[in-house]
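Sharing a chain and its predicted structure for anyone who wants a worked example. Both blocks are below, sequence first, tokens second.
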Amino acid sequence: MQIKTIAMSATTAVVLGLTLTACSGGGGGGGASEGKSGGDAKPVSGSAVKIDLTKDVEKKVGVTLTDTQVGDRVEIKKVSTKLDTDNVKSLKSSQGDVVLVQLKVTVPDDGYSVSTTDIGLKDDQDTTSSNLYAGGLEAAMEAQGYAALPSYVSTGSTKTGWVALQVLDTAKSADLTWKRAKHTDYESGKKYPARTMTAPLLKNTGADSAVTAAKEGATPKKASAKSTDDVTKNTVTVDQIITNFPLPAAVDYESGHIVAVHIKVDAGSVYTSGWSPSDLQLLTADGDKIDRYSNADVATALAEKGFSGLTDDGYISSGESTTGWVPFLVKPSTGDSGFTISQHRRAANIIGGGSVPAADFPAKITVEGVSDDSGSSESDDQSTEGSDDGSGSNA
């Protein structure tokens, strides 16, 4: 499971229902010595709160992490999934979901300053998150009443604010971690080792429903879409879609799931260039543009369920046809509707003179039994000319 932390960022809804929990013990590995202001405080205290992060909610938490060696405290006050990030373009290309967490950080006069970069999530493989700064996130938070926690809280001060934690895979548990670097108290000369305080934060309570959803998603649905290049006459026709095929265990380094479409491709005979699957894209309702996911383990998993890939991997000459399933890796929050299939035509020089400009040919995929909330209808043969990637070819 991969998890990142976003300092001063925004939130979208998380896919699965999660539980925020707290335990009564089990602090960091920095030793048992009593701190200057730590007293008898427990490393972790508080009570559990259940929350369905698939909905727009905001709830109180009440979990406290205490560095017992120096007395610094981080209190988890609230969690929220209500912030709208539709206009934060920097999040469009990132996989995963983020939830806002309100923290109150207290550093006594004889404590040790706290940096928000030391607070993050830890996954089941003990990989502590790294910070990611995305443009526009803090502005979105401020505009909607979620003041960001200052990146640095100095001694003798208390600060309260929101940070955003990005969860790339909600199928497993994730803990809130607070890392402290080794340091020396310059007044007493006492040395403090590096240490980490950990509290259970996100625990998946929807495992059964997730498995059910994956099984349901692995059932093909009737669909329809047709994309035709108006110049080359290359045509891509969609007749089925699988909206939530689970990633095989061998691909545990990825997050998200597979959306697969069954297509028939007819390469036009106007030019000799033929058709390549590398020019096929899936567009999501979130605005993501996703290329075909070429992965042998995924192709095998699909084939074992009876969903074979394109004939000869999809590369065909002019006048030929091919059929099969094409997989796309989408982020965990992607829903089961609002997809568009699109083929991209690269700019090309025509043998004998002339040229063909680059263009895209999107077609909305209509799924039987699934309503389209966008209000748009299937769009056949609606091309958009655009800039090419510079790799021209002869048609």
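Comments welcome. Residues 207-217 form the longest helix (11 residues).
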